[in-house]
Amino acid sequence: MNQFYTYYKDIKIAYYTFGNPKGKAVVWLHGFLEDSRMWTYLLDQLPQSFRHIFIDLPGFGRSQCIAYVHTMDEMADVVMAVLRELKVRKAAFIGHSMGGYVSLAFGEKYSESVRALCLFHSTAAADSPEKIENRNRGIELAKKNPQLFARTTFQGLFADWAHDLYKNEIEEQTQIAVSTPLQGIVAALEGMKIRPDRTVLLHFAPYQIFHIVGSEDPVFKGHSLDDQLTAPKVKAFVLKAGHMSHIENRKDLLPVLREYFKSL
């Protein structure tokens, strides 16, 4: 991957590119406590005919923080700033967890610039009152010990059986999680808890939406996503995984991604 920087409100934003500069653009957006390095496990399987763009969202990786609260809408504006710098007029999106929230915000605000959207272990629903309270507790815990919060939270995203099978990969990504600055952690939590419900996009968006979920995801338990998976604009895929199928189940994930690329 080639690394670049752009500026948004005088704040440095890091992004990386891979593949054909003249190909159709695919924007990859990482989740909470991650950065663009989460995608390295898939890199050698990506079609080089596309122009892959990996963005470190504000407060993560090599991108700086913007404010005390990073709303999903402002993160979407950051993504647009990168696309404008690259002169990309239309792109497909793959957003993991929080990156899915940002993709949806982008898809609502800049629908004419979206070719397709893939929610990757994410949801179009707003936070429930219980989830908001959990985020508030997380903010307080992070302020006391950000590294412990990051380690505990990140390692809780995997299915129980994955911890032994993928010990090295999990520890590698945990080190990235614990390096997240406190401001980045808090700003993202504050932004996620106030994001609006965007399930209407699953019914009326002017583009197709792939929705990839894990059958053992500790974040979205039981049948909480069933209504989203049967929405008119959605093509759904359920994989044997927790919240992190790019580590837990690449074998079944890669054919889904190939189908997504083929649809573009």
TrEMBL record:
<dbReference type="InterPro" id="IPR050266">
    <property type="entry name" value="AB_hydrolase_sf"/>
</dbReference>
<dbReference type="Pfam" id="PF00561">
    <property type="entry name" value="Abhydrolase_1"/>
</dbReference>
<protein>
    <submittedName>
        <fullName>Alpha/beta hydrolase</fullName>
    </submittedName>
</protein>
<dbReference type="GO" id="GO:0016787">
    <property type="term" value="F:hydrolase activity"/>
</dbReference>
<dbReference type="InterPro" id="IPR029058">
    <property type="entry name" value="AB_hydrolase_fold"/>
</dbReference>
<dbReference type="InterPro" id="IPR000073">
    <property type="entry name" value="AB_hydrolase_1"/>
</dbReference>
<feature type="domain" description="AB hydrolase-1">
    <location>
        <begin position="25"/>
        <end position="126"/>
    </location>
</feature>
<keyword id="KW-0378">Hydrolase</keyword>
